[in-house]
Design a protein that fits this description.
This protein is α+β, with helices and mostly antiparallel strands and about 325 residues long. It has two domains: about 160 residues, no CATH class; about 140 residues. Helix content is about 55%, strand content about 5%. The strands form two sheets. A four-stranded mixed sheet has the order 5-2-1-6, sandwiched between helices. Strands 3-4 form a two-stranded antiparallel sheet. Strand 3 and strand 4 form a beta hairpin. The radius of gyration is 23 Å and the shape is elongated. It starts with a helix and ends in a 7-residue tail after the last helix. The mean pLDDT is about 95.
């Protein structure tokens, strides 16, 4: 059983009755679900994932203290801690995982602030540009089993897509770095007789290509160890995961070098076609760098458009 379903069943069996019986005045004001850090929140967990931080638990997201007092919050923490520790063959750990508690009673403002710097989810343009997408992914992942007053559900919906100009600025930067690493530096490193440097260039090309594909799908890039897992499920260019994996896991000898250059060019062409299909570029060529500047030119906010092309990456 995956963690998200385990969490849902545990909540329905023990959590929901506890909230209705002991906190009836607040039950409809709270959001409850499994959201945040951990592979189970993304649905990426498997048998290996169960060796740590895997439990039948859930998150209760509280409003700010001026709405729900500390005494009630403390009582709710005690009630959560008293729930059965064993469920369907899984145990709740006695100690919190490294980095703090991922389940239990959590102030919504604390949860949001830790990931965005904002307690209400309202972000400035600068915050959108600087935030690592993995933290936004941790806000909109998983599921809410109980939406309560709808505040957290509305914030999740609000943060599920970044502003169009921010997306374009990020695309422009990652496209430029794709071009430099794959279309320019990879063959030059090979010409210099530096296969290790060439593989570093491949790594940079792959890293920025993955970022571009997520942006084209309007999805947030998760933590690096889950990027390929998430990439394979994307509807647009997700099938290129196999190409990117091949680029990373093969050598740069004479037999493979030309094949890898061809793969880089083919993927670059596929990305440019996707950009054209979304009306993000007017550059009609196979040069990723020219397309990067074309995307940047289509940013509506003048200050953001005129900022350095790498300002968002």
């Amino acid at each position: 059983m995956q963690g998200l379903e385990l969490s849902r069943q545990y909540f329905e069996t023990y959590g929901a009755p506890m909230l209705r019986e002991r906190f009836p005045a607040w039950a409809d004001r709270l959001a409850v679900g499994l959201v945040g850090s951990g592979s189970e929140c993304f649905g990426f967990d498997d048998a290996v994932s169960q060796d740590h931080d895997f439990e039948p638990g859930f998150c209760i997201f509280l409003p700010e203290e001026d709405e729900l007092d500390r005494k009630t919050a403390f009582q709710m923490e005690r009630a959560y801690a008293a729930l059965p520790r064993e469920f369907l063959g899984f145990s709740r750990p006695k100690l919190s995982p490294a980095g703090g508690a991922r389940r239990g009673v959590i102030r919504l403002g604390d949860f949001l602030e830790a990931r965005t710097g904002s307690r209400d989810g309202k972000l400035s343009l600068e915050q959108w540009l600087r935030l690592e997408e993995q933290y936004l992914a941790e806000i909109v992942n998983g599921a809410l089993f109980w939406t309560g007053d709808g505040v957290f559900a509305a914030i999740r919906a609000q943060l599920s897509r970044q502003p169009a100009d921010v997306r374009k600025k990020k695309l422009a930067g990652h496209l430029l770095l794709m071009a430099q690493a794959g279309q320019y530096n990879y063959p030059r490193c090979l010409a210099h007789g530096e296969p290790a440097a060439a593989q570093l260039a491949v790594g940079e090309f792959v890293r920025h290509a993955i970022a571009v594909i997520f942006l084209l799908n309007e999805r947030y890039l998760p933590y690096y160890k889950w990027q390929f897992r998430a990439l394979r499920a994307l509807p647009l260019l997700g099938s290129e995961a196999e190409t990117l994996e091949l680029l990373l896991t093969t050598d740069n000898g004479k037999t493979m070098a030309q094949a890898k250059q061809d793969l880089i060019e083919n993927l670059s062409s596929a990305v440019i076609t996707a950009l054209q299909n979304q009306s993000l570029t007017v550059a009609l060529c196979g040069d990723l760098e020219k397309n990067a500047y074309s995307v940047n030119d289509r940013i509506e906010n003048a200050a953001l458009r005129n900022a350095h092309i790498l300002a968002a990456v």
